[in-house]
Amino acid sequence: MMPPEDSDRYSDIAIALHWLLALALLASFCVGLYMVDLQLSPTRVRLFNWHKWAGMSILALSALRLGWRLRHRPPAAPASMSLWQRRLAEGMHHLLYLMFFVVPITGWAYSSAAGFPVVWFGLIPLPDFVPVDKSLAHFLQGLHSVLAYGLAALTAVHVAAALQHHYIERDSLLLRMVPARGSDPARQPRR
Ligand code: HEM
Ligand code: HEM
């Protein structure tokens, strides 16, 4: 049985992982978009490496986050949310978690298939789990790209839903994912 998450907020660890991963994902997505259009140059090679290292760090942090999440139940949804809204939010969170793994794994597989194995931060060589193969590389390149755009689209819906709760429903949903600041009234649920 998972212990209940304390009160009606996410824990500090869950909040830290949420915002750290949100930033890392946004940066990796923007670098990915930018780097693919560059001419072959030292900058392009450097950005490809940073993109790959950041992506592998996201994969490692996501494993940590999933482990934490499986042991800590999230706070109950605000009472104003109907059953279908709760199911929808749960489904969206599950889908996001799935994407945190498949997007980096397809990028990793693509690098291996293209014959450019990943050496994490230039220090730790990571294993290739697919063979070097031109047509497989082409397929994985497209798949990585489509999945990365899919993750961006899901994130946009997720952010819109969070803002809708805060500004239209005016419930406490967003505040429970924001770091607490003692008894700051701005962190209390708005009426
Ligand atoms: C969650 C993390 C990641 C995100 C959000 C992400 C996102 C992206 C995006 C948006 C592109 C550009 C796609 C396009 O416009 O065609 C891209 C390309 C690329 N990504 Fe990632 N990526 C991630 C992780 C990784 C990882 C872990 C690797 C490899 C270890 C990787 C390797 C690549 C490579 C090699 C390309 C260039 C593909 C090409 O030449 O067209 N990515 N990524
Ligand atoms: C790349 C960006 C983001 C990603 C990938 C992301 C992903 C996630 C995931 C997976 C959860 C579920 C947490 C869990 O139960 O373990 C979550 C929760 C949440 N996120 Fe995000 N998020 C992002 C950005 C944002 C932003 C910008 C906001 C605010 C505008 C936000 C607001 C929230 C809120 C309020 C929750 C809690 C929802 C609830 O209690 O049901 N997120 N997010």
For this structure, the quaternary state is single chain
* Radius of gyration, CA atoms, in whole angstroms: 19 Å
Total strands: 2
Show unreliable segments: none
Mean pLDDT: 92
Estimate what percentage of residues fall within beta strands.
Answer: under 5%
Structure, described:
The chain is mainly α and 191 residues long. The chain has 4 helices and 2 strands. The protein has helices at 12-35, 42-71, 83-113, 134-169, and strands at residues 119-120, 124-125. Strands 1-2 form a two-stranded antiparallel sheet. Strand 1 and strand 2 (124-125) form a beta hairpin. Helix 1 runs antiparallel to helix 2 (42-71). The protein is elongated. The mean pLDDT is 92. The chain binds protoporphyrin IX containing FE (2 copies).
SSE layout:
Elements: H1 12-35, H2 42-71, H3 83-113, E1 119-120, E2 124-125, H4 134-169
Helix pairs in contact: 1-2, 2-3, 3-4
Q: What are its keywords?
A:
single chain, 191 residues, mainly alpha, two-stranded antiparallel ribbon, 2 strands, binds protoporphyrin IX containing FE
Offer a concise description of the structure.
The chain has 191 residues and is mainly α.
